Amino acid sequence: MANYRRGRINDEMKKELAVILREIKDPRVKDAFVSITGVDVTPDLKFAKVYYSAMRGEPKEVYLGLKSSAGFIRRQVAQRLNLRATPEFTFVEDNSIAYGAHISKILSTIEITPEEEEDGNA
Does residue 121 fall inside a structural domain? Predict the structure, then answer.
């Protein structure tokens, strides 16, 4: 399978998972404002890593909520996407948003002072 096809499948899976997450009734997932940051499907379409970020809630509880909803999510993906095989989902917390905010905060605290011009080397 060509890499561009896998990329399209990853993007479509990401879009559908974002919609499906709004339908989950588990309060651990529903109240945590979970967003999907990426999906990585294996070349044989048997497994998929789903990278997520949660704004609220205990990270372990959000993970357990997603893990318990994996069957529902897989069934919904199978109905919505026309794939030969529906992958099994593995959920991985993505801390890149929090990390980026932390780096941005550090960069905003740095004070840059203009260097004094050298007298004769300009």
Answer: no
Residue 15 has pLDDT above 90, yes or no: yes
Scan for tokens 């990401």, then name that residue.
14
61 located within any domain = yes
* Cα pseudo-dihedral 83, 84, 89, 94, rounded to 10: -40
User: What per-residue confidence (pLDDT) applies to 62?
Assistant: 92
**How many domains, in total, are found in the chain?**
1
All residues at 6 or more sequence positions from 75 whose CB lies less than 8 Å from its CB, including other chains: none
CA distance 93 to 39: 12
What separation, in Å, do the N-terminal and C-terminal C-alpha atoms of the chain show? Answer: 58
For residue 72, what are the domain limits? 3-109
Convert the pLDDT of each residue in 29-88 to its tens digit: 888 889 899 999 998 889 999 999 988 888 899 999 999 999 999 999 999 998 888 999
User: Which of 1, 78, 89, 91 lies closest to 37 in space, CA to CA?
Assistant: 91
